[in-house]
User: Fold these one by one.
Assistant:
Number 1:
Amino acid sequence: MTDFRSYYGRPVVRPAVWRKDIAGYLFTGGLAAGSALLAAGADLTGRPGLRRVGRLTALGALGASTYFLVNDLGRPARFHHMLRVAKPTSPMSVGTWILAAFGPAAGLAAVSEIAPRLPGGPARTAATAAGRAAGLAAAAVAPALATYTGVLLADTATPSWHEAYPELPFVFAGSALAAGAGMALVAAPLAETGPARRVAVAGAALELYGSHRVENELGLLSEPYKQGRPGRLLRAGRALTAAGVVGALLGRRSKVMSVLSGAALLAASVATRFGIFEGGIASAADPRYTVVPQRERLDRITRTPSTPVTAAPERAPAQD
Amino acid sequence: MDNAASPAAASGYADPPRRMGFFTDTSVCIGCKACEVACKEWNGVPDDGFNLLGMSYDNTGGLSANSWRAVAFIEQPAPPKAPDGGAGDLRWLMMSNVCKHCTHAACLDVCPTGALFRTEFSTVVVQEDICNGCGYCIPACPYGVIDQREGDGRAWKCTMCYDRIGDGLTPACAKACPTQSIQYGPLDELRGRAEQRQAKLHEAGETSARLYGNDPGDGVGGDGAFFLLLDEPEVYGLPPDPVVTTRDLPKMWRTAGLAALTMAAAVVAAFVGRSR
Ligand code: SF4
Ligand code: SF4
């Protein structure tokens, strides 16, 4: 049933008022998480170049994330009101605390990259050790940082976000891995990028699988992800992901190929995030996506199909 | 009082007063908009623009940060009055919409600052000195009620005149309503009254009369502000089967946890898998 009734075609639920900052944050938060994970792995396996790129990217992306989150508030000067409470029923509250744990750790790990420039001896050793501890702490929090945003979007009445709750955390986890790996392919020394290539493959697989499901398994609520700008963004994301993975696998020995495929993976992650973000907004803006699934659910339960307009007598026929 | 009957008790109030609510009986609404005006006057709510929307007599357009009561106007072909009566007349449906003060309120659940809170009367209110305009409550509400005020940045909605009811006064809209389409009182009393009204309308042949939001078993645990409608909810711009989004939140967190583990495992495998 796609026929439905509405009040002058007005939306029933309200589309999020979040600006592009939040879509941007979905990307930068994921990039920070993916980079922190790669940096920790690189640190433990003796790949200093990959480690440095990961740590510095994580810090840069964290800075961008903070800017986006504060800038999108209606009252940016009240950002700290988020810290009044810790509420498990609010994914935004949970996310605030995840960021509060991730931020200092990722920051310290990045700062410790000056260790090689310190005079030898205790100062350098201490900086290296602190960097490792901080980097591991950041990596421990990173998977939560990358995936809570899926819950953030799904925990709304926005039809195509809510319906996609089983998929969104996987899409975002994959997108975060692919973005982190993409940055490593762009900036890390070629000889150390082996793990980044494997992470790129895993991330791309998760991202492609998840977004395929989002675009095809949600019935009517997949529609907003296939049409218009969200559809174009998600298709572009898919193509760029595929190109990036192929490039990452074939370009092991070529810096140019590595940089290009890394850039493609980063662009893919941006496109996917914006596609998911805008697809949800589109689903809230059209009452069809709210009314039709709810009406179908009701009709399944009560087995009484919706009454036509004329079924309501104006007053009792007997009295006329 | 058990917690299901009193969201205030469930939120930790030791001995809350009775749950207060609105029953909006649309069958007697005359579309005068006294409620809209009284609400704006009492609560100091700014105008919503002075627009002609081409939606019958509705130039408010629905609830928003600056309209906490909004009267909907629907023009429909009325059914024939007798079997041989030929084509019917036009009929108007009018309904004064408002925040539902849900038993399970998504806006309140997702608010990360604690600005939204449950009052002792079991209503849901935003504290304007706490809200930082994060906007999360806005897509969370299954009825599209709460909204961000432009130029102000914070979220605003009906408070059920929290400042009046604490003093034993009736909320401004209910006080101003000349037909008692808007009734204010203890919710359990209102529910009983609404059932009687529905039965009476059915007896009179108005079989399309139905209650909306009165059922504590619905997807939001029942509304603190519920309605008697003469057509399907979606005709009035209301969702036919709203569900509080946080009902699925435990499943969402589990999914995210699984995705996070998958992610960590993929990175570990990438580093230990091969040596290059
Ligand atoms: S109707 Fe919307 S704004 Fe009002 S209490 Fe329910 S969820 Fe909150
Ligand atoms: S906009 Fe204000 S009331 Fe709404 S969730 Fe954010 S802090 Fe809470």
Number 2:
Amino acid sequence: MRTIEAQQITDTVARLCMEANYHLGVDMLAAFDHALKTERSPAGREVLSMLKENARIARTERLPYCQDTGFVICFADVGQDLHINGGLLEDAINAGVRGGYTQGYLRASIVEGPFRRKNTGDNTPAVVHTQLVPGDRLCLRLMAKGGGCENRSQFKMCTPAEGLEGAKAFVLDCIQNAGPDACPPLIAGVGIGGTFEKAALLSKRALFRDIGTPNPDAELATLEHDLLNEANTLGIGPQGYGGDTTAFAIHINTYPCHIASLPVAVTIECHAHRHRQAIL
Amino acid sequence: MATAEMRLLTPPLADRDILGLRAGDQVRFSGVLLTARDAAHKRLVAGLDAGQSLPIDLYGQVLYYVGPTPPRPGMVIGAAGPTTGGRMDAYASKLMALGLKGMIGKGGRSRAVREAMQQHGCVYFGAVGGAGALLSKYIRSAEVVAYADLGTEAVRRLVVEDFPGIVINDVYGNDLYEDGRRTYAR
Ligand code: SF4
């Protein structure tokens, strides 16, 4: 059995929080460049250039890309043969969030309860999803999830009769409804199948795949491609000022489901798509 | 944006500044912007409803919906892009009645608020959502003027120079989001 120290997890999470907020992924920068070539709307192109410049300033000055530095969502895949010494995994992650957000001059955006809306002051707690996996490693996938876009995420329990067409229509509906509010160009993480909560988790995990890489499942890859094309005919465009670039990507994960059900969850993510991972 | 003329706005704004603006016009703000988002709006309007006088004078002013990140030492402000305007819909009409002339945010407003904008002569501007690092570069100073306990949600007085925006809703009922979608939908 391998052992790692909780402190190592804390230090790693702190670093990932800061990196995610200052450094937009190269896949996103490539998506900006690609869209700049295809976007017809002058206003849309101007927005895309501003976003590129925004990413450059954030990276070089260690200034957050967006002032909403997000709710930290952490997927922790824990090898069954790994032992964590010196504290609980979730505590270690939260200590990392506290450290990263304080030292990194990131915004504290979490309130202690849905009705008692007092800011916790250090952006804790994170939302932690733990899963046991083979091996003796710990894989931490961390996302700083914006509130404006998360507010547009939706779930629908479709019926088996609605099928593929029903699921597609719902995804497009979500993008249409998100409109300018969720800071397009968007990324939609889609979870189809499982149960109510499983679909939601699948939709979040789907966001960790690099933009521009095809779904490993050929059928889903085609579905993603078709949905993306349709989303980009909606006309919403960058920031909703009108244009062809409403979404950068649609990523789908599926799971077996009950004979009675067809759950579809759509996580709406904005262009401030900030995530990082580390394997310990 | 490239087709429209660039307008320079220096709050406090007068009716004539507002009347000349059309959805889609690019603007640049120089001078004072006041900040408020969800919690500050809630408190402002609760004060109004209780008959108290407000800690800030909104007459002719422009409210920027923003909750900035903390500044690093030596900096004026951290990242400071707009937040979703629609969440301020519940409060906006009451503030327009006090003479508020502009709101800067991102995302659509309710029909009721758009109508109130026409009635009171107030314009809703978009700033590029998510461009927090870039937009901070147009802010010359920032000072908390009310509700310091709200932290990032406190009311700040920003002095800006050439801060970029675009008219989303003018006082004639036009809406850039609707026009844009109509133009580019296929
Ligand atoms: S939706 Fe995304 S880009 Fe827009 S303000 Fe929120 S986190 Fe930033």
